[in-house]
Design brief:
Largest sheet: 3 strands, mixed
Radius of gyration: 15 Å
Distance between the termini: 45 Å
Helix content: 40-55%
Strand content: 5-15%
Number of helices: 5
Number of strands: 3
Length: about 150
């Protein structure tokens, strides 16, 4: 029986995380990353202070880059606060959360294009970049807009 091939994406994910924190820095967004936080504590954004706190110990490591982009999105979109700690209800159908998700999706896509990943299939892109399944529909829209 042939051995199953295991792909280690740690180096790829770390390059993406570095890119995202540099993006935050370049856009005057302060950040704190917590390496020993409870794996279930959500990452947060404080819009007025232009700061994000990222739980680097999140229970699903694959989504950490998307989460960083999401928190950056809260700051960059510049909408008024609907709650001080934006992501306590992360994943809820709050328009502000959806907009931050879409911002992150597009930010990761731009990064991917810069890496010349050449994804032709939204599902492959979503899987490769640890983007949550709730974003599959938006990924299809983004790819369709990119082709048009």
């Amino acid at each position: 029986m042939p051995e199953k091939m295991v792909v280690n994406n740690n180096a790829r994910r770390n390059r993406l995380i570095t890119y995202l924190f540099n993006y935050a820095f370049d856009n005057d967004i302060g950040y704190v990353f917590c390496k020993k936080a409870n794996p279930r504590y959500p990452s947060l954004a404080w819009k007025e202070e232009r700061e994000i706190a990222i739980n680097m110990n999140w229970h699903n490591q694959d989504v950490v880059p998307f989460t960083i982009g999401h928190e950056i999105g809260h700051i960059m979109l510049g909408k008024p606060n609907t709650k001080q700690l934006c992501c306590i209800a992360y994943g809820a159908q709050i328009e502000e959360e959806k907009d931050a998700d879409i911002y992150s999706l597009h930010l990761l896509y731009r990064y991917s294009c810069g890496q010349e990943d050449n994804f032709y299939d939204p599902l492959s892109f979503v899987k490769a970049y640890g983007i949550p399944n709730r974003m599959i529909g938006e990924a299809y829209k983004m790819f369709a807009e990119d082709e048009g």
